[in-house]
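User: Predict the complex.
Assistant: Input components as received:
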Amino acid sequence: MDKKRILITGAAGFIGSHLCDRYIKEGYHVIGMDNMITGNIVNIEHLFPLETFEFYHHDVSKFVHVPGNLDYILHFASPASPIDYLKMPIQTLKVGSLGTHNLLGLAKAKNARILIASTSEVYGDPLEHPQTESYWGNVNPIGPRGVYDEAKRFQEAITMAYHTYHGLETRIVRIFNTYGPRMRVEDGRVLPAFFSQAIRGEGLTIFGDGSQTRSFCYVDDLVEGIYRLMLSDYAFPVNLGNPAEITIRQFADEILALVNNPKAFIDFRPLPVDDPKQRQPDITKAKAILGWEPKFDRKTGLELTYEYFKKVVII
Ligand code: UDP
């Protein structure tokens, strides 16, 4: 029997590369695509010898051509950390808007099902807590995070439009803070920052007083949820994340305790503009529709992630 063929954009990135591994393991033929502005080829180099893996170095904001048939598309290309999208605001807007449009067009031409990576950032600095999919969000369109948030909100809108007007099979996942091996050491997000600072014996840079909250999901749990969502018949957005909420101050203490480097310390810094004060996914929908909930608690997930950072952080 012919293998199912799936295109994964952002294939060399943190979540994209884990998705490539999962779909290879499930017996798919995987076509990875990445323009490498935030991707790392090391994340997927173990796949290059496989006959079931191909890679295209391409920017999906430009016309996307893939020879042969396609059954599925996963659109995960985008700068995704606040520092990255502050450095690359235009690329961030383009990949979420023009890139998504190109991939929807490709999905239509190939009669493929497409799942797009949306984000808890569509909720902005949320006034509803925890966040359910029916909440419309509190986003500043012209603030520094607006380039990411609004690109993702547009992405959801155009994806629903293709679903409604062209009958395209679409899926939308709203991803909450996710962590695990292959996060970029210097991407500026809180977990890589804290791990590398703790390992190097530097100050853990807590922005603000550290009372803001996040809820962190281990990457294997997220990948399982995405895999199930793709196979489901549900076209509206679904939150995926781990509801275990923690303050950034507590998170720093957990990483300090795990790394146990006597030289590391806490270093308070100013809070960035429009930094959401709290964030926690309501995953009632994912539980009901996908039979999914996270399996990795933070202790286990952080230990697995620490093993990775020990190898890649240069002291
Ligand atoms: N943060 C921090 N120190 C850092 C990096 C981030 O205190 O070195 C805070 C940041 O202000 C935010 C939270 O940690 O409140 C999560 O930030 P991240 O960049 O990981 O992702 P976000 O959830 O804001 O998109």
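The chain has two domains: 5-177+218-242+281-296, 190-211+245-280+300-312.
Let me know if you want any component modeled separately.
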